[in-house]
Amino acid sequence: MKLRLTAALAAIAAGALATSAMAEPVVAKLAAPGPGAAKPVAGGAVFECLGDVCAARTPSADTASVRGCKELARQMGAVNSFGPASRQLSPEQLGACNESAKK
């Protein structure tokens, strides 16, 4: 009985961890609209871009980083905001990111 209870608790804990590990989408607001629909890869994730918004629905652990932002900026141009809703890059981080923006 004790073994079953321990197994049940372990299963519940594993489910809770899996749910918390699900990443929020990473969204970038571009400084200028892109030329049309695009699917650049940045920070280990595919972004879907339309107009001045790009979103990675299934980001990797590195997607929301300054490096991920730089990779997107190289392909799509300067960004005004970048990151998941709960953890946007700071103005200083955006400045570093935009140094890589395509001209």
Structure description:
This protein has 103 residues and is α+β, with helices and mostly antiparallel strands. 38% of the residues lie in helices and 20% in strands. Helix 2 crosses helix 3. The chain starts with a helix and ends in a 5-residue tail after the last helix. The model is unreliable at 5-21 (pLDDT under 50).
List keywords for this structure.
103 residues, alpha+beta, 4-stranded antiparallel sheet, two-stranded antiparallel ribbon, 6 strands
Short description:
The protein contains 3 helices and 6 strands; from the N terminus they run H-E-E-E-E-E-H-E-H.
**N-to-C terminal Cα separation, in Å?**
66 Å
Quickly count the helices: 3
What is the rounded Rg? Answer: 18 Å
The description of the largest β-sheet is: 4 strands, antiparallel
Name the helicity range. 25-40%
**What's the overall geometry?**
globular
Provide the residue-averaged pLDDT: 84
